[in-house]
Amino acid sequence: MLKPRGSAFGLFIDEMQDLDTDLLSALLTVQHRASQREWPFFLIGAGLPNLPAVLAENRSYAERQFLYSTVGPLDKDAAADALRIPVRHHGGDFTDDALDVLVTASGGYPYFLQEYGKAIWNLAPEAPFQVEDAELAVEVGRRHLDEGFFPSRWTRATDRERRYLRALAATGEDAPRSGKVAELMGTTASGVSDVRETAIKKGLIWAPEHGRIAFTVPGIAVNADSDLGTSGQPSSAISSRSRLTRRYADWTSLLISRGLVSCPTSVSDSTFSCSRRPSIATCT
What we know:
The protein is mainly alpha-helical. It folds into 3 domains: about 5-65, no CATH class; about 75-150 and about 235-284, no CATH class; about 155-225, Winged helix-like DNA-binding domain superfamily/Winged helix DNA-binding domain (Arc Repressor Mutant, subunit A). The protein has 11 helices and 6 strands. α3 runs parallel beside α5 (about 110-125) and α5 (about 110-125) packs across α6. The longest helix has 24 residues, at about 130-155. The chain starts with 8 loop residues before the first strand and ends with a strand.
C-alpha cells in the first residue's frame, strides 16, 4: 500500500538503548526483513553513545544495518539560541552575561539547557534576566538534577563501577586513557576491563576513541567524585540545598526592596515561591 504511493512508514524511538531486549530484538528483525524485501519501513533511533554496542549485542548484523551519526553537545552559539529565541518569543530576554552563565553551566547538553531555562523563567522577577537570576537558576537546576537525573544513573552502578567512576572523575580530564583510570584504582587496564565494559553497557561512560573513556553526560564527574549522603542523594545535592536556603532569603529581600512582593513574616523564616508575574508572587 505504501510503496506504490511513494510513501513510507518510519518508527522514531528515543533512548533506544533502554528498550526491552525482546522488543528491541523484534524491531531489529523486522527492520532486517524490510531491508531484504525492500519494504518502505524505517527505524530511526536516538540514544546514549553506548547504543551501537547495545544493538550489536542484540543482533550481530545491527552494526551494518544502520547509519550512525554522533550528535555531541551544542556549540556555544546554538546553546545560546536554544535559550534566547523562545524567551524572546514570549517577551523576555537575557543580558549577555546572564546568558553566558547558563550556557557555560549547561556544557551544551540540551536537557540541562531545559532545566536552567525553566528555572530562570520561573525565578527571574523581571526582564532582561540578570547574572544573579542566572546564578540562582543554575543552583535550582542543579538541585533538580541532583535529586533525579544523576542519582538514577548512580544507583544503577555496582560498588566496583562506582569506584571506577570516582577514579575517572579524579583524573580531572574529559577523556583520559583507560590505563590512567586503572592506575588510580591501583590496578591495570585489563584488571578492570570487565567493570569498564559493564559501565559502558549501562550508558554511564563511553569510549570516544580507542583506549580512552569519558562520561556520557556532563556533570556526572562532579557527582561521581562525591559520596552519597545518608538520604541516598549525592552530597552535592545536600550542600546545594543549604546554599539555596540562604540564596532564597537574599532573593526574597531583593524582591521586597523592589516592591515586587510583600511578606508579613520574617524572611529568614519564610519559604519563598515566585511567579514571573509579580502580581501573584507570594511568601508563605
